Amino acid sequence: MSMTFAEKVLAKYAKEKEVVPGQIVTVKPDHLLMHDNASPIVQKIKLELEQYGLYNASLPIIVLDHVIPADNEKTATNHKLIREFVKKYKVQHFFDIGYGICHQLVVEKGLALPGQLLLGSDSHTCSYGAVGAFSTGIDRTEAAALLLTGETWLKVPQSIKMILEGTLQEGVSAKDVVLYIIGDISASGANYCSIEFHGDIHQFSAEERFTIANMGVEMGAKNVFFPVDDVTIKYLKSIGVARSRYAPINPDDGAVYVQELTYDISDISPVIAVPHGVDKVKKVTDVEGLEIQQCLIGTCTNGRLSDFRIAAKILKGKKVHPNVRLLLLPSSRQVYLDALKEGLIDTLVDAGGVLLPPGCGPCLGAHQGVLAPGERCLSTSNRNFKGRMGCNEAEIYLASPATVAVSAIYGKITDPRKEVHRK
Fold first, then answer.
1. In contact, 31 and 276? CB cutoff 8 Å
2. What is the chain's alpha carbon radius of gyration, rounded to the nearest angstrom?
3. pLDDT tens across 144-157, in order?
4. Which of 25, 200, 218, 271 sits at a 20 to 30 Å CA gap from 89?
5. In the CATH scheme, what is the code of domain 24-263?
6. pLDDT in tens, 123-133
7. The CATH number of 272-420 is which of 3.10.180.10, 3.30.499.10, 2.60.40.10, 3.40.50.2300?
8. Model pTM?
9. Burial of 170 (0-12, 13-18, 19+ CB in 10 A)
């Protein structure tokens, strides 16, 4: 029987010859991701942990990233409890404040590999499909049970095949592509489905694939997958992962999909998600001229080196509009250091940008960028829900790094091609 990527991975981990959509399987994942929410998770099973211990010290990956540095005593106490848990149970993969955002680190540190199964107590765990892994979010109770038993159950998802054809126009990016797709199929268009990307995908770097995979959950997907190719292998080699460490799993020819969608990406222009839904997508030209007060470049969606290169190229020799605050949020310490070496940080700060520590702060409205009533923020992040950045009376617009950088100069939403075509 021919199987999709999701079916092949789950059959392997369930030790079955084959599985079908809707089937319930019991699996033992390679890793369980947690972040600041590790504190309430381990508190759920405090007594059980003392009695039975942690299933495996290499199973958890814990990253402190959501509210860093701690903004109040409660947060500081939660961080302290996590550090004590890590020390007591000798957790092997722990990243304290300053290392970066959990999803970036899992990939950057080579903890997500092709053909592996990773679960996480965060919905954007689906990001790791960028390197050919099956990865998905689970809730805190399931995460707690995993810490004790090392196993959980999953329902085999149906699969959607998305074929990307053509070549991107100048000034259009992977972020525009994924926003366009979400706008087309809606925020629930891929509910509990595994999305496989095929076609002319070689033009997308590993970082661009990360951006697309990261936003899979915004269309309801259980996981997102890019087939392992030369791009994947080259990226993994660049971060020190030997080819012998992983065994890619790609879908079979003849696999059955619940839906096949084809997109001519050469027709896509810069787009933007308007409040208050990620699937409320319009062309940038349809909302051009709308004044903004804050811009955010970064997060786990678009906080990588290539994103800052784009922004720095646009902002070099220019200044951020006096009515705009431009926040810069590298997705990891390594990204920050690399951007420093390339002079990108100098360029962006000279232009008026404000550098924040690698973390999640403003994206979820925790701190470091909370909006005031009536303000608008243009962000490269992945969500624009009402209240997402800390204020129910503010508005969040989602766009590519190029669109955000150009708009920061003019103080209003602006088509990025306005600057691209000048160069």
1. no
2. 21
3. 999 999 999 999 99
4. 25
5. 3.30.499.10
6. 999 999 999 99
7. 3.30.499.10
8. 0.94
9. exposed
